[in-house]
Amino acid sequence: MGFYEDQLKRLTDTYSRAERNIFRQLVRLEALPESADKAKRLAWIQDLQRQTQAELVRLDAFSKKWAKDSIGGMYKDGVKEAQAQIKKATGKLFGGVEGFHIHAIANMSDKAMSRFADVITTAGRKTMDIYNEAKLNVHLFDAVAGIESWQKLNHRLLDELDKKGVTGFVDKAGRTWDICVYTEMLARTTMMNAYRDATLNEMRIRGYDLVMVSTHGTLCKLCIPWEGKILSISGDSKKYPSLAEAEDGGLFHPNCKHSIDCYFPLGDDEDESQVMAKMSGEESDEPYSAESTVQDNEQDSESQVVNEPDQVIARIKEVKTIEEANQLAYDLGLVTESASFDGLDVSVAQDMMISAHETYGMFPDMPRIKSMGSYRADNDKDLAISERSEVYFSDIKGSTFGLIKTKVDIKADARTRWSPQRCDTIKAVIDHEMGHQISYYLDLSNDREIIGMWETEIKKGSFSKFDLSEYAYNDWFERRRYGHADEIARYVSLHEFISEAWTEYRNNYKCRPVARKVAERIIALRGAEYLAVHRRPFS
Description:
Elements: H1 2-27, H2 38-90, H3 100-143, H4 150-164, E1 169-170, E2 176-177, H5 179-206, E3 210-213, E4 230-232, H6 243-248, E5 260-262, H7 272-275, H8 290-293, H9 311-317, H10 322-331, E6 335-340, H11 346-362, E7 369-374, E8 388-394, E9 400-406, H12 407-415, H13 426-442, H14 448-458, H15 471-481, H16 486-507, H17 513-526, H18 528-531
Helix pairs in contact: 1-2, 1-5, 1-12, 2-3, 2-5, 3-4, 3-5, 9-11, 10-11, 11-13, 13-16, 15-16, 16-17
């Protein structure tokens, strides 16, 4: 079902981008300088509020069009497939999607639009509540002496937001979902329902009663009893169970991938195994669990191993000026030519040097990068230069590339799964780029074990199921979508997968299995003598 997967990715990509944009807008509540007066603060919040409302309006318009196009397309495909099966079995030719089918498509599309609208309404209400509370903070700050600073008030507000989630959604059963996971589940369910209902409706219209459930080796306990079974649509058959009985038993649960085919018995004594067509499928039908998407965000400090004091890092942290940082990066051998952190906050320069130093400590023989530093592209005057990470590298391959990100972007990327978990600092961004240097150095894109890990993840097929980050796999799907050669998409995606895994391993003391496996493979390739002395910051 190429149409099915394409439409699913359209929806998940759009909701993921919208969530990132909304979160960025909310995080910018902290960006206005403390010195701004009351009127400017209120205007700042009002502008962000308008941007968020516009994002939600765009999302609503997209969802309505998506529901109409996707459900209509899936339903029509289901009708055509049923008609083809009827023709093959009986020789009778039926064509067209009209009459009752048109009304069925409209009804299903309307229901889907309503459910997506509920999600967007919930997200809008939660974000507007945050903006209103921020406005209240403005008046509170202006009226009450000795209260927390404006930035601290909003920082506390955003911390609470980060714990609860900006677009969390609670379904009718009381389960809490991440908005992207929920909308993907909703999309999968409504599209598959449209395809199945099309088959059922066409069979009813043509006077046929029996259907067969697809078979693809599911592990789902709800579906196992019904795989390959023949069902009666009307429930009037004395030989076969009814469709209603199967549905009551759990078949076609939310996110279920099972389909049905028309069934035409060849004789009264026929055994169903003689005609059962094996249907292939790559995905498990295990229902989504909200609990599986919720990550434990509380840090267990006792689980951390405290490293011996690093004198070089201590020296880096003592740097007070950019001029000192420029000189120290060269003196420490972190670059072969020069460092120029002009225009950056000292803390950003320190993070860059610490990341490079720790990487070279783990891989002492790896060639050094030629240079690193800052770009002076100050194209966002609302953010102080200390809030920007505008950095560049000239890497070990001689290529020069730049990164222009704000702290707002970095935090939003991690919150919305574009970046790995807990990788919401400038140091994490630099660790990602150093991961590329390690990949080049060890030729990791040709390592069979790492390639196998990447292929296992890619087969999952959807961003909400990936165990790393959306960015780690985005190049593969985007380049394939626009017709780029598979080998190019594969090469680029592999490198990003490796760097994202390395970044999470370096910055998340509770890193997930796929990140740990990739990192352990990297360390193993570095050599056994290194394993004896290596300890990462969060072991």
